[in-house]
Amino acid sequence: MENTSGISGLILKEDFLWNKSRKGRCGISIPKQDVKQSLLDPELTGDAPELPELSEFDVVRHYTRLSQWNFGLDSGMYPLGSCTMKYNPKTNEVQAARPGFAGAHPLADEELCQGALEMMYNLEQFLAELTGLEAVTLQPAAGAHGELTGMLAIHAYHEKQGHQRSKIIIPDSAHGTNPASATLCGYKSVNILSGKDGILTPESVAEVMDEEVAGIMITNPNTLGLFEENIKEIADIVHDKGGLVYGDGANLNAIMGIVKPGEIGIDVLHFNLHKTFSTPHGGGGPGSGPIAVNKKLEPFLPVPRIAKNGSTYALIQDTPDTIGRMLTFYGHFGVLVKAYSYILSLGGKYLKKTSQLAVLNANYIKESLRDDFFLPYDRPCMHECVFTDKNQEKNNITTLDISKRIIDYGFHPPTIYFPLVVHGSIMIEPTETESKETIDEFIAALKQIAKEAENNPEILKSAPHLSKVSRLDEVAAARKPMLRG
Amino acid sequence: MRYLPHTEQDIQEMLKKTGHTSLDDLFKTIPAQCQLKKELDLPEALTEWELDSHMEELASLNAAFPKQKIFIGAGSYPHYIPSLIPYIAGRSEFATAYTPYQPEISQGTLQGIYEFQTMITELLGTDVATASHYDCGTALAEALLIALKKKKKLNKIALSSLIHPHHRQIIKTYLDPRGCEIVDLPFKDDGTTDFSPLDAMDDIAGIAIQSPNFFGCIENLEQAKAIADSKKALFITSFTECLAYGLLKSPGKCGVDLVAGEGQSLGIPQSFGGPGLGILTSSKKYIRDLPGRYVGRTKDKNGETGFVLTLSTREQHIRREKAGSNICSNNGLNALTAGIYLAAAGKNGIRALAQLNHDKAVFLEKELHKAGFTTPFSQPFFNEFVVKAPKGFKEKRDAVKKNKGMVPGLALEKYYPLLKDHYLFCATEVFSKKDMETMVREVK
What we know:
Number of helices of chain B: 12
Helix content of chain A: 25-40%
Largest sheet of chain A: 7 strands, mixed
Structural class of chain B: alpha/beta
Low-confidence stretches of chain A: none
Distance between the termini of chain B: 56 Å
Radius of gyration of chain B: 25 Å
Largest interface: A-B, 198 and 201 residues
Strand order of the largest sheet of chain A: 1-7-6-5-4-2-3
Oligomer: heterodimer
Order of helices and strands of chain B: HHEHHHEHEHEEHEEEEEHHEHEEEH
Strand content of chain A: 5-15%
Mean pLDDT of chain A: 96
Number of strands of chain B: 14
Shape of chain A: globular
């Protein structure tokens, strides 16, 4: 383990907030009582909630210690496949925190929100240009929420055509959110299998496509990191029977400036601004999942929409065929500011370069590790590559063991056991913001782990060794849930 | 470009390894007919400093707290945010981490969310809370989906017309594909929900009301619970102003089944309406029905206490088309933020702030009263209330808006066409007595 980032260091224990509480402490500054106190009817009031009583410094130290138990993207490489853990630029945080954005009220009169509306309008235009689609809504709160929005638009489209359909085609390599979103619209999922080289064949789609199928949900590049080469033919098959093509944009980072989804038959696509457009994941959100649609679906976009009239911006509160509203206000505005800042910082030229380098990094890893780990689909990849634990099986080592051991080397593990179509998959997405040196270190660590699997499998079985806690008992956690202190 | 570390030499070395001749060559598996023939039509890259000026220019076009005094709540509330909150929540170990699927190196996020779940259930008197949802409106829609799932044979829900109008739109949008019937419960003269349309119905899966409601009035949850029980319907409540529960009787104590709420008031900037914080919490009974993530406590193999995401067999990544919800990313960092806020405010701080909010609102209402406004609804409110404005107010409001940087109230006619000249005002701890007196003087 020489020359790797992971070493053990001083880790500080920290008790629960409530065990640190001392009666009478308070950690915030309460504004002065400059008006008379006015008591509510005691019938309506309750006892003060039993929250911990702490000083400001108690709170700061508590959460600082907690933060040190976390591995963030700023701590080290985070090669999570399909998650696009690229650098989160710090200037984006500064922009979103400007008082003119952070303190803006969503229901203040339109003429008082022109800056916010202009930013959103511009961002919509940028996203439309990137995808070659007509119109964008920024409202969805996350990728899955964007999927639901897109599927509701498809549902409304068929309703308007006068014949509602009952099924959606979903490839086996899709994210779980795809079938779950389709179900919420009342559609039954029809699963189809990828072909033997990891991509969909037009035949498999033609076989199940009929006038009862509302559309297909496709991730392109798919979750194996492969470009769906037959996309145009597949889209034609679906369109010929009156269906629509939903594009899951989780993997857009591979194709910016290289392919416009709107030009290859995609009717609606969602973005994950927290993936492709560099906004932080926040340990599970908030994300942002705008969708772009073509002319066919534009009438169904949620309201309000943003319009530009001359040099002013306005909100259109209702349109005749809209699906309605997906979020209380206009989307995760604070996240939108960051994505907008990112696009402006790169411009068209460097967005394309971003995709090129993301694909270069993934191919470089694939080529560098092909002798150490099994490659289920040995063909040029896009922005991520998928290995499995097949070579390690003989030593009784699994993907889980490998991924836990990676932690000891100072890297976040890749996405594991997804996509489901590959047994024991290890899905690596380096992103473009990792340098060659870091990637070389990561490759060296994995090569070392492959050797350990041969010579010292026990060290993988019992990994991780350097983290605050070792492997946790997830079965016990689920059997007898303890969800509060 | 400073985010892209590759030197020309790196690129050449890496291409050599991958066996490609150029960066373009990497994309040869993409059929030529799919490849873009021209460059993207996007602005040229800005320097960091150009970006700063562009963004400040845009930001300065907005009326915003604290510079402008915006006397509006309606789902987004101006509150002071202690400096420690953005400082701590902004630590990159929290902010730049992914969902804690690798618990060994995510204990910070996990304990932080576990403590959030604990404090939210304490605040609302419930048993379990999820790791968060997007916002109140979407959380409430999910709560109604649970009601429909639990009462399989029924396809009807009742919604108070005093639930935030945008939330009602979200619910309608979510439920439309199922063709579910929504019974609209009108409001009574006192500004609370009128349940009388339910008298003749016995096929309601769930009844939802908001308290404090959109008019700011505090609903009688115990009474509503009794009605829901008599109909064998799930009783769901929502709230947009979380701080109210520093003072009000908690929904859990009133026997509410499911609670959906907005946590923006807990240290989260208004940010033009998002990202906020969806809160979903319930009695134990619904632990397996609530959608989204939970953090649970367990032990590691050395017996140390630790935390993991748990009960995930309910979720889409496992259940796929059979999942009750499609939620994946939630608003985790804002949940952590709310946790920090609740910890800093504590039992006494939350109570004092809540009381102060109420005091300010009562003061403002009295001042407006003196200036010729009338109060149409008699039910007590928390920090928002409705007034009917005297003649000429609209013009004065426009003038004040333009010249004084103040936004006095939200016109309700757009949401409730019968309420002409009615405005919803909000006062929180951020408005001084002087701010309120000045505003009232201007619109008198």
